[in-house]
Design a protein that fits this description.
The protein is mainly alpha-helical. It has 16 helices and no strands.
Length: 293
Amino acid sequence: MKVRTLWLALFLASCAANGMAQPASPPSGDLKAAIAAGQRGDYDEAIRLLDHGLGAPGLSSEEQAKLLLYRGFAYDEAGKYDRAIEDYTKVLHLKPDALQVYYRRGIAHREKGEYAAALADFDTALAPGAKPAPGARTPPDWPFVHGDRGVVRFATGRFAEAAQDFARVVALDPSDQYGILWLHIALSREGKPNAQEFARQAAAAPADEWPQPLLSLFLGKATPDQVRQAAAAGEAEARQNQECEANFFLGEYALVHGDAKSATPLLKQVVDACTPSLGVHAGAAGELARIGK
């Protein structure tokens, strides 16, 4: 889920994870103004400000990398995935050990439907023995990278490998409800449902309002109508994302029970109406390709 109020936090976390100093040196005015524009959802203005900052003379490679990384975020949020990929690639030329930038580029590739390229970037970010850039505090075994790689593997029908990724997510964070749910579905689609383990994991997860109804659906404790009702609660942006997730997982629920006819319109709605930034978009596209629709 993309939340504008978390945009700055995501950027600063990425800087830290890649050994980049937080933005504090010139042209900090452009960068700070771009951050504010991004938080308002004005990505065109953020990009304009970052273009101006990148045109300043005498930039160090560190300053260029920061500005390019942030512009990549802005392009990504604006749905300009090719431009985001270009900027992330430029960052990697400046900082080839910036592992989380491979992850960000992988996300942009996934959003474009370029699954092979996305997997290559996720694999690089999680490569055995890979080390973060100097000064980074985050180890390379990131649950969010495993989660997104699992989604792409699921989209391409590699359910066993997807399950391995989702199992790693749950091992790293047993409270990750999405990881628990995706793991159960991947195993079910592989023909190896983990009903008892799923029930145990779901019981240990926090009883949040969302996505708990999705877990309850697969546990037999909620009906599809109850899931739809829960998805329609909350603020506008949350509702939009929840309804996309509800349609996808209701579609998966139908597929797990052998009902491709009921699943198809739900999955089509995800592909037609939901942003590619949501992992369920790739999941739905993959399922429709397998169904032949």
